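Thread: "does anyone have the structure for this chain?"

Original post by V.I.:
We have the sequence but no experimental structure in hand. Need at least a predicted one for the grant figures.
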Amino acid sequence: MNKTLRAVAIAALSVAALTPAMAQETPWQVRVRAVNLDPANKTENGLPLAVNAKLIPEVDISYFFTPNIAAELILTYPQKHNVKLGGSVIGSVRHLPPTLTAQYHFMPNDAAIRPYVGAGVNYTNFSSVNLPNLGAPFGQLNVKRSSFGWALQAGVDIPLNKQWSLNVDVKKVQIRAEVQAQDGSKVDTLKVDPLLIGVGLGYRF
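Reply from O.Q.:
Generated one for you, C-alpha cells below.
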C-alpha cells in the first residue's frame, strides 16, 4: 500500500510540475496586419497591363505543432484593383487571395526577437471583372477566375508580453491573372506576383 501511495504521489507531483510548462505551450496565434501590396506587373506577351498598388488589411491564424514549426492561414476580404493598359485605367477587378504557409521559427522561446521563414501555396479568386469590349478580334475582355501559385515568407515577432507581440512580415506571392478574349482564348497573362510588406500585432492564446 505504501508503495502504491508513493507511486501515486510521485505521479501527481510529476503532473503538477509539467502543468505550468504545458500551459505555456499555447498553440494558437492570431495576427492583424496593415500590408502594402506592391504588384510586379509583368506580362507574358508584352501587353502593357498593370494593377495598382494599395494598402490592405490582413488577418492570419497560426497553429504551432511544435515550438519551432507552425502553419499559418493568411486572409483578407476581396480587394478591388484598377486595371490599367498603357497607364490608363480601363476597368477593375476584385481578387481574394487566401494563402497557407508552413513556417519554421528559429528562436520561439525567451528571445527578444523571434525570426521565422515560411513557404506555401496561394489560391486567388478573381471576381467582379469590369473590363472593356475592344471589338474585333477580342470582343469583351474577361479574366480567368482562379490562380494557383507559390508563396514565400519571412518575418519577426517581437514579444511585448506573454501574449502580445509586434510583427513585421514580408511575403512574395505568385498570382497570375489570365486576360481572355470573348471566345475564351488567352490574350495575355498579367504576372501580378506582389511583394507584401506588413506590420501588425499578434496575440498568442
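V.I.: this helps a lot. Helices lie at 2-24.
O.Q.: and The first helix runs from residue 2 to 24.
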